[in-house]
Specification:
Layout (H helix, E strand, L loop, with lengths): L19 H13 L11 H20 L24 H30 L6 H25 L4 H5 L2 E5 L7 H16 L3 H4 L10 H6 L1 E5 L5
Antiparallel strand pairs: 1-2
Helix pairs in contact: 3-4, 4-6
Length: 221
């Protein structure tokens, strides 16, 4: 349909520019040319090293956005208010007044019992019952003032009032803890009571356990 390109006098065929021998020489030289060696595949160790470096770099970038650690400070132990701790001598005075009240109550109970039952022979068994009765009345005396939420007669007579470590009126739970702490301090051969003589803040065991302590009603005393 179309005439060949070399039939056009304006087109010079490629074969007419080079001879057959020259074309064979060009093909031979092209075959002898060495192709560049292909790049060797990276080993697993090299790839792992690169991945580790990349991970370290990424981690450093992410650490820039990491929030700073928040330092949480725990509760500060010890007394936080300005109220002075009552000296051990004043506390002993209050305890003696309370003990006197308990002894009077025990004497009144023993007199009433003797009036109803008559004379009682004081033997070993009767002495044990008397000690149990004295301990019961003393415990009832402490429990009565604890649940009333007020200071004992001895503390009022010695000019003492009970406060917590913040200087406020103790809560009912703190008064209950103080009562339990007094039992522990007394049953431990009284070590918890005399602890006030060696404590830095002159506090007993039940003071530390309940977070309360007696202070002077008038700080100037």
């Amino acid at each position: 349909m179309f005439a060949p390109a070399w039939s056009d006098p304006r087109v010079i065929p490629f074969d007419s520019l080079t001879s057959e021998k020259e074309r064979e020489s060009i093909r031979a030289r092209a075959a002898e040319m060495v192709r560049p060696a292909a790049s060797k595949p990276k080993t697993a160790r090299a790839q792992g090293s690169r991945t580790a470096k990349q991970g370290t770099s990424d981690q450093q970038d992410l650490d820039f956005f990491a929030p700073e650690p928040v330092m949480v400070q725990g509760p500060v132990p010890g007394i936080l208010c300005d109220a002075p701790v009552a000296p051990p001598s004043v506390r002993m005075r209050a305890a003696m007044v309370d003990a006197l009240v308990i002894i009077v109550a025990c004497a009144a109970g023993a007199a009433f019992f003797r009036y109803l039952a008559g004379p009682v022979t004081l033997d070993q068994r009767a002495a044990a019952w008397c000690m149990a009765g004295f301990a019961t009345i003393a415990l009832f005396y402490k429990v009565l003032w604890t649940f009333a939420g007020a200071d004992t007669i001895g503390m009022q007579a010695a000019g003492l009032r009970l406060v917590d470590f913040d200087g406020r009126v103790p809560s009912p739970a703190q008064r209950h803890q103080r009562l339990a702490g007094e039992l522990v301090s007394t049953l431990a051969a009284g070590v918890g009571l005399v602890w006030a003589f060696v404590d830095q803040e002159r506090l007993t065991w039940h003071d530390h356990m309940s977070g309360t302590f007696p202070t002077l009603t008038e700080p100037g005393e």
